[in-house]
Amino acid sequence: MTMPLRRLPRTAAATLVTLAALTTAAHSAVAADTLGSAAAGQGRYFGTAVAANHLGEADYTATLDREFTSATPENEMKWDATEPGRGTFTFGAADRVVDHARSRGADVRGHTLVWHSQLPSWVGALGAPDLRAAMNTHINGLMGHYKGQIHSWDVVNEAFQDGGSGARRSSPFQDRLGDGFIEEAFRTARAADPAAKLCYNDYNTDGVNAKSNAVHAMVKDFKSRGVPIDCVGFQSHFNSASPVPADYRQNLQRFADLGVDVQITELDIEGSGSAQAAAYTRVVEACLAVARCTGITVWGVTDKYSWRSGGTPLLFDGDYRKKPAYDAVLAALGGSGDPDGPGDPGGPAVTCTAAYTRTADWSSGYNGQVTITAGAAPVSSWTATVTVPAPQSVSSVWNGTPSRAGDVMTVRPSWNGTLAAGTSTTFGFTVVKNGSSAAPTVGGCTAS
Ligand code: G3I
Hints:
Number of helices: 12
Structural class: alpha/beta
Bound molecules: ligand G3I
């Protein structure tokens, strides 16, 4: 994934000055040359579904690591994979995806805790009291195992029926526990990992229709009663029979207006060439037009491993070549795949460096300072990552706006995003040592 984390040298005098001259190339007229860095320039993540069994394929992993800043295990966190027998949790495959993503500073979306599909048969055989207990045990088991490591969880997936009824879908949970199972799942989830964003995720809710109206009413009710929900996921599986709705942006916006983030969680669009590219552009533009649309995840890296590979719905073909849809998404995100190619308007690239210094040190903690320096072009915004090794924890940050995924902290400007060419700004942070005085890893300076 972009923003690779690197172990950096310490000075002999242990003043612990480290320098991470990590730059993400970008052009003065454009932001970046990968999906992840271009999306970061827009304050968003760009993710993909990841299958653990492909991580050994060099081209798959190289494409994943280069382009994407978030990963969603495609099947590895589902109930059949993680709790195949009651109380028997298996995390091996999911751990491989999570560890791979987090070691590169990427976020992880958890998918999914309560879903009628890929549900082991023992769950469907339980009576109501047992099922309620099993649901909560499952949520606690997964969220406990990954506590502090997940950006957003799809707590409940696909709980509403298709069509015009607006009704809940029949499932063991719905049929035995009633409508209240969704609320209970979210309450359990909040207690299990208070740092994770909690999402409701569904398909055919991408435009304004009876199903999305029903989800909207549920979210509105949850917000009015204080049921913990932070985000709504719009799967966005499109093809000619189910194209990008004309009111896609308006639909995202009306959910955002309820006070939740919106995320595009499983995007794929069947087709090819310019038609496919144009549809992808519409999706990206809709997300960028909605301030609370915080990220986009495509449902796979390459067409050849897509759940509907015959429809070639993704951004890379079976040989990992960028498709026209890739170029369209990158352009819509403000990036450029060919910054020095024909049509390049000229001028230096927009880059930055991040240099770390330990400015204070005491028995139980230390202060770190990161100096962000613009390259040869002016900078209008920047991000940098700070990874504090366990068991350390960051207790405060100044002159920067942090967001955290596990022990990786991404810092964006507070008031200090604009830098003239060659000039610098700093942000700082306090670390509680918890017994370890190791240096943090600072890197991933991205400028736009
Ligand atoms: O791993 C086994 C393999 O050992 C076996 O030989 C093969 C035979 O069919 O099956 C393989 O498992 C398949 C698995 O994908 C991994 O490829 C399952 O059969 C297959 O059912 C499963 O499909 C997944 C599907 O969810 C199941 O509902 C897709 O990969 C996955 O992309 C898809 O994802 C869902 C989201 O979770 C929710 N939203 C819709 C989306 C698309 O259906």
